[in-house]
Amino acid sequence: MATTHAALGVLPALVVLPFDPALAVTSAYAGYAGGVFPDLDLYLEHRKTLHHPELYPALATLAALVALAYPTPVSVAVACFLVSAALHCLTEVLGGGLGRKPWISDDHRGVYSHLGQRWLPPRRVIPYDGSPRDLALCVIVTVPLLFVFDVRVRWLLLGGLGISVLYTVFRKRLADWV
């Protein structure tokens, strides 16, 4: 789920928190956005157009080095955004395929490798987006973050968690409705 990627995207902001709590809030927002960003290709060629499992990690590394050398709100936010986008793309291979009903396991496209010019197969650790396992991961990541960040980030995380619960409840029906 995009909301699971978004919650995972807040994790890089934990590195910022001990050094600058105010900047950690901005970093959390940037990480949340970076966790969602690759999924903006949902109506293009999903998991290929904006998913770059090789490019984002390289850009994230460069941005993190810049943020370490010149820690400004912008440099740190860009680094968190890119680290989160990289994490999103790298974890896609752990999910299911791209079929309309991915719980059937009839699609063998996990995420596209632009360097290898091929689809990496899904590993199905999280069998499909919106699966109970996906929701469990979202809860496991979100709940501890609620105790770390201030109320602004908490509301964002709780909103995402609420959407996750609803999506999980209706996920299999959505495939027939759409």
Walk me through what this model shows.
- With 178 residues, this protein is mostly helical.
- It has one domain (2-177).
- 59% of the residues lie in helices and 3% in strands.
- It is built from seven helices and two strands; from the N terminus they run αααααββαα.
- The chain has helices spanning 2-10, 13-16, 21-36, 55-69, 73-91, 132-146, 151-177, and strands at 111-113, 118-120.
- The chain has a two-stranded antiparallel ribbon.
- Helix 1 packs antiparallel against helix 3, helix 1 crosses helix 5 and helix 1 (2-10) packs parallel to helix 6.
- The longest helix has 27 residues, at 151-177.
- It is globular, with a radius of gyration of 16 Å.
- The chain crosses the membrane at residues 153-170.
- It comes from Salarchaeum japonicum.
- This is Metal-dependent hydrolase.
Short structural description:
By secondary structure, the chain is mainly alpha-helical.
Task: Throw out a few tags for this protein.
178 residues, mainly alpha, two-stranded antiparallel ribbon, 59% helix, 3% strand, globular
Strand content: under 5%
Helices and strands: which structural class? Answer: mainly alpha
Give the termini separation.
17 Å
Low-confidence stretches: none
Total domain modules: 1
Task: Describe the main β-sheet briefly.
Answer: 2 strands, antiparallel
The share of residues in helices is: 55-70%
Give the overall pLDDT as a whole number. Answer: 95
Count of beta strands: 2
